[in-house]
Amino acid sequence: MQAINWAQIDLNLLKVLRALGEDQNTSKTAQRLFVSQSAISKSLKKLRVVFEDDLFIRERHGLTPTPYCLDILGQLDEVFDSLDALLSPSQQFAPETFSREFKIAVNPMLLTALSRSLYPRLRALAPNARFQFIGWSWDTESKLLNGLVDIGINFFPLDLSTHIKATPICDAHYQICTRKQSTFDQQGVNHNTIANTPFILLVMPSYANAVSIAEQYMAKKGISIQVLARSDDLTSCLAMVETEDCGLPVCSLIKNELSEHLTLVEFSSEVDLPSFKLASYSSYVNTRKPITQWLMNEINQVMFELDNETRS
C-alpha cells in the first residue's frame, strides 16, 4: 500500500470519513451532514478506492472501523486542526465558538458524579458544542490513541500505552459504601469485618473477571472475601447495597450520588490501603492541542471542587 498524499484528497471526503468514524452509521452521518444516505455511500466507495482499504465492516449494530481506518481517524483531527490554524493562525482556542463534539471517557464509578458537575460548566462555556460522556471500557485506550476520545478520566496508575500521557489531578480517597446500621457502619472497616462481611464490586465494562483492588489487597493479607455480585453500573451496585448487609468499595467523589439509606465509612488505620490518584489521560499528540489543554483545565477545576465538597 502506497503512502497517502493528503493534498490530493477531497476535503469533503475527509469530513465524511471523520463523521462516519464517530457515528458508525451511514444514516446518522447523512442526517448530520444534511445529505442523502446514498451520497454517503458513494463517498465511502470513493474513500475505499483512495485508501485501498474497506475502512468499515458492516455488522448488525452498524459500521466497525478496520484497524487501518482507526489509524487514519487518529490523524484526521490533527489534519483539520492544522487547517484551522492555517486559516486563522493568530486565534487561540475559543470555547464560545467551538461547534464540534467533546468526547470524554470516565471510569464508571465517577461517570455520573463527574458529568453532573462538568456538563453544566462546559455547556455554559461552550454553548455551541456537543458532548459525549461515556464509560471507560476495553477499547478506550485505542480510542484515545486514535483521537476518537479527547480525554479519559480514571484512577492512576494504569497500565496503558506509552503514547498516552497521564496527568494526576487529585488523590483518590477510598471508603466503603454500606447500608446505614449495617456491620460496616456499626463496627467499622477493619480486617475482621472485611473478612466476615460480603461485598458488591463495581467493575469496568469487559473487566468483570478481573481481580479488584479489594481482592488483591486481602489476598496479600491472607484473607479471603465473599463477593456477592459484580456490575459495571454504579446505580445497580448502590441499589444492591441497599438490600444487603454488605460493602461496596468506592471513591469519596460519589458521595452526592448516595440515597438517604446509604453512608460512607472510613477504613480503619489497620487497613493499609495502596495510594491511588485520579488522573486525566490523553494521547501525547492531543495533549499539545489548545482545545485539549483547555478541556483538561476545566476538568481539573471541577474535580478539585468536587473533591473538596465531598470530603467536607
TrEMBL record:
<dbReference type="GO" id="GO:0003700">
    <property type="term" value="F:DNA-binding transcription factor activity"/>
</dbReference>
<dbReference type="InterPro" id="IPR036388">
    <property type="entry name" value="WH-like_DNA-bd_sf"/>
</dbReference>
<dbReference type="InterPro" id="IPR000847">
    <property type="entry name" value="LysR_HTH_N"/>
</dbReference>
<keyword id="KW-0238">DNA-binding</keyword>
<dbReference type="InterPro" id="IPR050389">
    <property type="entry name" value="LysR-type_TF"/>
</dbReference>
<dbReference type="Pfam" id="PF00126">
    <property type="entry name" value="HTH_1"/>
</dbReference>
<keyword id="KW-0805">Transcription regulation</keyword>
<keyword id="KW-0804">Transcription</keyword>
<dbReference type="Pfam" id="PF03466">
    <property type="entry name" value="LysR_substrate"/>
</dbReference>
<comment type="similarity">
    <text>Belongs to the LysR transcriptional regulatory family.</text>
</comment>
<feature type="domain" description="HTH lysR-type">
    <location>
        <begin position="9"/>
        <end position="66"/>
    </location>
</feature>
<dbReference type="InterPro" id="IPR036390">
    <property type="entry name" value="WH_DNA-bd_sf"/>
</dbReference>
<protein>
    <submittedName>
        <fullName>LysR family transcriptional regulator</fullName>
    </submittedName>
</protein>
<dbReference type="InterPro" id="IPR005119">
    <property type="entry name" value="LysR_subst-bd"/>
</dbReference>
<dbReference type="GO" id="GO:0003677">
    <property type="term" value="F:DNA binding"/>
</dbReference>
